[in-house]
Amino acid sequence: MSITVAKYAGFCPGVSRAVALIEKALKEQQRPIYCLGELIHNRVFIEDLRRRGVTFIEPEDLEKLPKDALVFIRAHGTTEQVRQTLFKLGLDSIDATCPFVQKIHKIASESGDAEFLIIGDRSHPEVQGILSAAPGKASVYGGLAELEAAFPEGTVIETPAVLTAQTTFHTEEWKKCQKFIKNIYKHLQIYDTICSATEDRQKEVRALAENSDLTVVVGSKNSSNTVKLFRIAEEVAASADGKRALLVETAADLPAYRDVIRRATSISITAGASAPGSIIQEVNKTMAEIMNEEASFAELLEASFKTLHTGDKVVGTISAVSAAELKVDLGTKHTGILVYDEITDESGIDLTEKYHVGDQIDVVCVKFNDADGTVQLSSKRLDASKNWETVKAAYESGEILTGVVKEVIRKEEAYAGVVVTKGTARVFIPASQSGIAKGESLDPLKGQKVNFKIIDLNEERKRAVGSIKAVQRAEKKASEEAFYASLEVGQKFTGTVRAIMNYGAFVNIGPVDGMVHISELSWGRLRPPAEVLTIGQKLEVFVKHFDPETKRISLGYKTPENDPWKLFTDKYAIGDVCDVKVVSLMPFGAFAEIIPELDGLIHNTQLADKPVNNPGEVVKVGDVVKAKIVGIDLDSKRINLSVKALLEPAAEEEAPAEAPVEE
């Protein structure tokens, strides 16, 4: 018998985010916490939140809440009307809406005059919230059958439309709906909005159900994605004799299916996106206990006559432990001997600390000695086989593996790559797939735990090639998608200047870069970006425009707060004296910088206490002089400065007394 737990079982990123947000609020626990509907669709989790003080309410209850209430918007989102009510009442709220759902809200809000169509469950809170964001006509269809009923054959609609899907909708049904509706609307824009995690789960549950006698789906019956997983498992089970599918909420539901579980030789477990990991683990544990319950007398009698052969794989029970070997009870007349070297390749491991009498251990029979009544065992060889099967399965499924870099390989003076171990399996990762820039040292990777994918495999030679870079690329893509889903125009960031070009600068704002155009870098005359910025400089920017399709973000830098005219008028007034720097000379005078990006004019008549024909005779570019502000014209954005105004009083005091007039 075997039990396989799905890779994608349990919380999806959107649910994990919502749970993390409310856990943080509960930890701080400084004011009453309310949640608009169920935060996620899982009864056990919701009951736990209730016990911890969270109150679940409906929108009509908002006006009854105390002013210090903290209101959570569920992971499925809410309607625009509810958001407006929260704003009007002045209630603080935390938006736990899944970023993928937020993305569809944005698509709906920008649909304009086009008809907005969504394929999904019209009663689901996610769909109701999305519909409320559409400014024009909006319609919901539950699937292909509803579309066919609504649009008779031959229907053609010329008006523009936008088509989306509920994030947890059935992927195969979604494809059928797209194909049908393309023939109805001639001006149709389609957005594939089914969450990638949902698609991965649905593909995985189908594969698991096809290869298992029994498929168990864990989750609540009011969870849309959980029910869809169960329906897929049911479809597969119905197509083959002897297969079954079960939907359970917790491990407590399993005893009712004891006979079904014990008859199965292979079982797979998956779970909806709202199922906590603790419940999945408990289901797995309980099923294992049911499968290993005390055997019948007939089974015990059969076991007493059991014989083993070289190469057989068996689960034994440790009966004795020493520093050099383990003795293993195999349930036969032979005593199993497992020596140190057949347990591990690692030195320094204390067997007496790691293993204990009564522990179960997987071994393979290597050599029998009937005279002594013993059989030499190996767990290392079994581990090697298991680990290779893990690598092989990962190659076929595209699963991401985690291993440790054990060796850095050089070829002459260059780096060839690294060797990563997954248990006892060795995977070679070429330098080009290491995630390290070409020409840089791979030595820092040694000893590090890394995530990688298998990109090539030789079954005969038991050799595998992996890629760290492929995982990093996928993680970067997922991070960028989540970032764009939550991005809004006007959103502010503290970015880092990554590259400076003639036309502007690229600024990193998290997982992506945005462009600050040269026109955004100064309020006055355009200056080369290299004169304004330096690589690595921190910069306060905001989003002016972005396009998720082309992955382009336009960033702004100029704000009222950094307008040099505002900075100037906040600090200076007519009559003030300041140090100014001469930046250019003209035939009629000199321009001098008062504060960065703001210049004033010192006219020829104001450069000295005597007439000046050429300003270069008095000052040169780069000179810093004291000047008095004698004029400010806000309308025309002009400032007049005077050096003469500071010289005239001194000149009058030092002038000689007037000579007497001769008579």
Mind explaining what this structure looks like?
- By secondary structure, the protein is of the alpha/beta class.
- Among the domains are: 101-194, Cobalt-precorrin-4 Transmethylase, domain 1 (3-Layer(aba) Sandwich), CATH 3.40.1010.20; 301-378, Nucleic acid-binding proteins (OB fold (Dihydrolipoamide Acetyltransferase, E2P), Beta Barrel); 396-474, OB fold (Dihydrolipoamide Acetyltransferase, E2P), CATH 2.40.50.140; 487-562, Nucleic acid-binding proteins (OB fold (Dihydrolipoamide Acetyltransferase, E2P)); 564-654, OB fold (Dihydrolipoamide Acetyltransferase, E2P), CATH 2.40.50.140.
- The protein is built from 18 helices and 32 strands.
- A five-stranded mixed β-barrel has the order 13-14-15-17-16. It has a five-stranded mixed barrel with strand order 18-19-20-22-21.
- Helix 4 (99-109) runs parallel beside helix 5, helix 4 crosses helix 15 (468-486) and helix 8 (196-210) runs parallel beside helix 9.
- The longest helix is centred in the C-terminal third of the chain and has 19 residues, at 468-486.
- The protein is globular.
- The N and C termini lie far apart (136 Å).
- The model is unreliable at 294-298 and 650-663 (pLDDT under 50).
